[in-house]
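Researcher: I'd like a candidate sequence for this fold, 333 residues long. If you have to choose between options at a position, lean toward the conservative one.
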């Protein structure tokens, strides 16, 4: 699917785009690390299937699997590092309120590609140790505010470097729960509700994603074994080029053992309780954490005012889409 783009004019040559992407990425990760007290670590491209460390996303996407000659277990290309990071914080002996971030690359072969979705995923995956008493919405919102400050700083830097770019972010980020959003727009779909709210507020944190709403639906699906659905959410902005809401980050306070069991039972995934990652949570072998992913290409798409994620990353695209994009003057890498 191609978004309807009107009168698109790329403000950068390809060479200028590469320079701008590097500047934006370098500055963003440094500022993020400073605000959240994070250290950069190396991250895996693949994990053992039965470790339970891979991200199942919405539960329907199938990771790419392969065999190696020294293991009887399947190896899986990561879909994200949501669970791996929590385990790494313990193994690397991080302390309270210290965290890590990594430059994560993944392949999501089942993704339906369009202007903002690609088979190739690049994001900053981050995770931070918190105390038991921090497992509340107030702490979650404070961290969201910190990330929004990082976004504001990046916008100021990139716009100073390229004065032809517009100011896109509001002064403050808005907060609304998925249930409140349903009550505000009861006759709309979840995506339509996001669009209407973001069109007005420009930047928002929609929280409690995955939790069942009063009408029996879910705002969106979330894996049951990392985010606590009562303490998570998405950071979204409004993209004028695409005339659409754009999710930049999915994040949250991670499950404790009570939330883990409850959510796995709700999704009939009790078999995951036998995986080592789940056992470590059940036996209090992992720290309490907060974490998330921040899309690198989406960040570049938004701040550099591009019309397609393929303008800021190299991937594969449907031939029909490529023809349609070329007619719109959108040339992909």
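Model: Candidate sequence:
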């Amino acid at each position: 699917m191609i978004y309807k783009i009107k009168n698109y004019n790329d403000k950068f040559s390809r060479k200028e785009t590469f320079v701008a992407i590097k500047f934006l990425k370098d500055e963003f990760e440094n500022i993020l690390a400073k605000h959240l007290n994070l250290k950069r670590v190396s991250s895996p491209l693949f994990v053992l299937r039965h470790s339970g460390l891979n991200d199942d996303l919405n539960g329907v996407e199938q990771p790419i699997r392969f065999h190696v000659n020294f293991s009887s277990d399947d190896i899986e290309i990561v879909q994200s590092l949501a669970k791996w990071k929590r385990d790494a914080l313990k193994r690397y002996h991080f302390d309270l309120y210290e965290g890590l971030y990594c430059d994560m690359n993944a392949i999501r072969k089942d993704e339906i590609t369009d202007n903002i979705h690609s088979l190739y995923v690049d994001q900053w995956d981050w995770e931070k140790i918190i105390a038991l008493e921090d497992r509340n919405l107030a702490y979650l919102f404070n961290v969201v505010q910190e990330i929004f400050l990082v976004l504001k700083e990046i916008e100021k830097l990139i716009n100073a470097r390229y004065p032809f770019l517009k100011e896109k972010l509001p002064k403050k980020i808005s907060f609304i729960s998925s249930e409140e959003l349903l009550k505000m727009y009861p006759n709309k779909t979840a995506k339509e509700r996001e669009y209407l709210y973001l069109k007005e507020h420009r930047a928002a944190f929609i929280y409690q994603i995955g939790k069942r709403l009063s009408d029996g639906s879910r705002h969106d699906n979330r894996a049951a074994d990392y985010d606590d659905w009562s303490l998570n959410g998405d950071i979204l902005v409004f993209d004028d080029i695409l005339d659409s809401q754009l999710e930049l980050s999915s994040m949250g306070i991670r499950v404790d053992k009570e939330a883990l069991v409850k959510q796995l039972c709700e999704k009939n995934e009790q078999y995951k309780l036998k995986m080592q990652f789940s056992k470590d949570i059940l036996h209090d072998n992992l720290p309490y954490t907060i974490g998330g992913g921040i899309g690198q290409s989406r960040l570049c798409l938004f701040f550099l005012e591009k019309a397609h994620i393929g303008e800021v990353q190299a991937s594969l695209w449907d031939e029909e889409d490529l023809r349609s994009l070329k007619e719109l003057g959108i040339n992909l890498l």
